[in-house]
Amino acid sequence: MNLNKRGIINYLLLPVAAIFYLLSTFRRLFYQIGLLTTHHFKVPVIVVGNITVGGSGKTPVVIALTNYFKRCGKKVGVVSRGYGGIHKKGSLSVNDNTLSLDCGDEPLLIAIQTQAPVMVNKNRPQAVIDLINRHNVDLVISDDGLQHYSMGADVEICVVSGFGNGFYLPAGPLRESKNRLKTVDFVLQKQLKLCAFVNAKTGGEKPLNYFAQQTCHAVAGIGNPAEFFVSLTKLKIKIQPHAFADHYFYKPQDLLFADDYPILMSAKDWVKCHSFVNDKMWYLQVVADLDADFLTQLEAKL
């Protein structure tokens, strides 16, 4: 869509955005004054979220924190809404063998890369309760959930990567006011460290310069495909970009190309292609770069 046309549409949507703002503001107020119930739990809950829609980098932070606390000897579990998955009712335990179609791409990626118990339920408090009861965890991390006020949080972490045009949904990306940043415990700028290219079929790794000066297909069905494409270009890869909708579930024919070029994708895309990967497919492994001082301050709050 033409950028000017998109801007006009955004301005036309401002009355709807105003209604969204009022509804979200009153909803939060109702929780604050007790008209709506906030549930609290017997173990600490860390919420990692954002105030915008789209790829702010919160899932890599969840993965990094989960692995960090596991190394510290904690029994960590993760809860998620399971956005994009078809599971609708009750809690679904996610492990390596769960289909991303059922649970969504992010919960499956977290389960694979942390080997921690992951519970998917649109009812966040129930997800926490079931996670504690079924897996006896002593720390819960919520992937997203800053706006889920029914789930009491002991620590709130907001990951930010910009605020777009500064408008509320649907005219812009904001889910809450930027003043919300003043009430969370930590604000993290999106900071991802590129690690390696991992073969989608064999798990073998290659260094970041492995595809330099090569022509490759770049596939992304994530919140910000352009950011992924820029990362590959900075690695001096000659890309043929293929952007899909966020949380898009791939079919084998989506990745059938007439040539034999390597196919590069994000880790979130990789978990959606498990059933038909081949050795021409690679994903770019990234990790959240968490500051030691931040981790020390976070532990002090638990």
3D structure, described in words:
With 302 residues, this protein is an alpha/beta fold. The protein has two domains: 3-190, Rossmann fold (3-Layer(aba) Sandwich), CATH 3.40.50; 192-288. Helices cover 30% and strands 22% of the residues. It has nine helices and 13 strands. The strands form two sheets. Strands 3-4-2-5-1-6-7 form a seven-stranded mixed β-sheet, with helices on both faces. Strands 9-8-13-12-10-11 form a six-stranded mixed β-sheet, with helices on both faces. The protein is globular. 36% of the residues are buried.
Provide a concise account of the structure shown:
By secondary structure, the protein is an alpha/beta fold. The chain is built from nine helices and 13 strands.
Features:
302 residues, alpha/beta, Rossmann fold, 2 domains, seven-stranded mixed β-sheet, six-stranded mixed β-sheet, 9 helices, globular
